[in-house]
Amino acid sequence: MQLAITKQNVNVESIKMAIASQIDSAGFAAWVMPLQFEIVDNRLNLIAHNQFSADHVKRNYGKIIQDIAADFSLELNIAVAAHVNLNSANDNVVCAYAPETKNIVQAKRNAFDDFVACDDNMFAVAACKKIAVGGASFSQLFIAGPAGCGKTLLANCICATSNKRVVMMSGGQFVSDFARALRDKTIFSFKDYCRNCDMFILDDVCALAGKRATMDEFLQLLTDLRANGKSVVLTANAAPNALTGFDRRMQSLFASGLVVDVVAPNAYVRRAMLNRAGVDGTVADELSKQIGGDGHLVNGIISKIKTYTELMGETVDMDVAARLLGDVLNKNKTPTMMVKSMCEKMCVSYDEICGNSRTRRLVRARQIMMAVLKSVTNLSLTEIGNVCGGRDHATVVYALSQIENQKASDLILNAEIADLIKVCK
Asked: C-alpha distances in angstroms, 14 versus 69, 300, 361?
């Protein structure tokens, strides 16, 4: 009996060594070593802790292990343990993963009616509706846009409209839950939870930036979901190739699906949002012109007006609104908000103006904005350069000289600058 046990142990160790020589060390340590090896009746049984682990080993290493088992005259059987001990060394700690917070979104047939879309956002909304109802030709949707443009609202609309199994997380929740799963030794349960769905939505992938272990886990999650035909929706404040803190491999995977841009609310959208909330039409018209293109800011204004009306029992006219929202309206006069207002007027994005692109259209727009800022503010040339994306003093000097030279003979440019000055005042 002792000889039989010794022979089995030698065979098992020999098989492990043979497998380790055929696959990468990281894959062996992560997926093969945790398996329970048994040799029973000329059969090599590999027992996994859960179905995900068993499926992963079969899919990625099954052929290699089967050939090695055949060399030892053994058949291969990869199975899941019938009973898994969910308790750690401390019997009071249960190691079954459950999300820290649950996103409960009520199913709504017309959830997208909550999103007020301008013409620039119609394509993005159509793509979101398509992936929500299923049957989309793209399996991954990447929604990019600045803060306050409605990315989270679109993600919630997709979740509320879909009748499939949806797992939705924020980027911060994914990071914290992944760290908690590692700490509590429930990482395989966490993997199962993320993969046991028809659609996976991650709101704000930027929260993963710089966290190497979390990014590696998320990269594997995306690969597995797409390989199994699952739908994926991601949101971020920049396009994949403009994300910071992510390596080229991650950026490439993010860009491999359908990437749609969502722009900040323009004056029409801001007015519609205010009107929907019951703000007086005249007040809504005036406020939509004075506040910046930030959906969060608009929602804050709506909340403030509603609360004032409820508590004071008064209708908010423009005089009351000016007094009530003085802190918000004054921010519109900051240089940054001036630049953003000019971007909207000139049909260019703030990120492009502050970016590194040197296309003729963007260079001219930057130069005009610098000239306007010089006219309506007391900023130094260095401060003007910082507001326009960190340009140096020499760049601002050159821009101002170019605009001054062109103004002498270009009446259209003079009218455009005068119009922008009105926007900033």
From this structure: 11, 66, 67
d(CA 73, CA 356): 63
For the question of whether the overall pTM of this predicted structure is more than 0.85, the answer is no
What type of residue sits at position 421? I
Q: Are 381 and 396 in contact (CB under 8 A)?
A: yes
Query: What would the two tokens of residue 65 be?
Result: 């292990």
pLDDT tens per residue, range 264-297:
888 888 888 888 888 888 888 888 877 777 788 8
Q: What is the pLDDT of residues 191-231, one digit of tens each?
A: 888 988 999 999 999 999 888 888 989 999 999 998 888 99
Domains along the sequence of the chain with CATH = 2-80 (3.30.300.180), 111-261 (3.40.50.300), 267-331 (1.10.8), 335-424 (1.10.1750.10)
Written as one string, the DSSP assignment of 350-402 is HHHHHSS---HHHHHHHHHHHHHHHHH----HHHHHHHTTS--HHHHHHHHHH
253 close to 222: Cβ distance less than 8 angstroms: yes
DSSP, collapsed to helix, strand or coil, labels residue 141 as: strand
Is 316 within 8 Å of 280 (Cβ atoms)? yes
For residue 262, the 8-state DSSP code is -
Which distant-in-sequence residues (6+ apart) come within 8 Å of 177 by Cβ?
Answer: 97, 99, 100, 169, 190
HSE-up (13 A, CA, CB side) for residue 246: 26
- Sheet containing strand 36-40, edge to edge, reads 36-40, 43-48, 75-80
Residue-wise pLDDT tens digits, 16-62: 888 988 888 777 877 888 888 888 888 888 988 777 778 888 888 88
- Of 401 and 344, more confident: 401
Contact call for residues 351 and 242 (beta carbons, < 8 A): yes
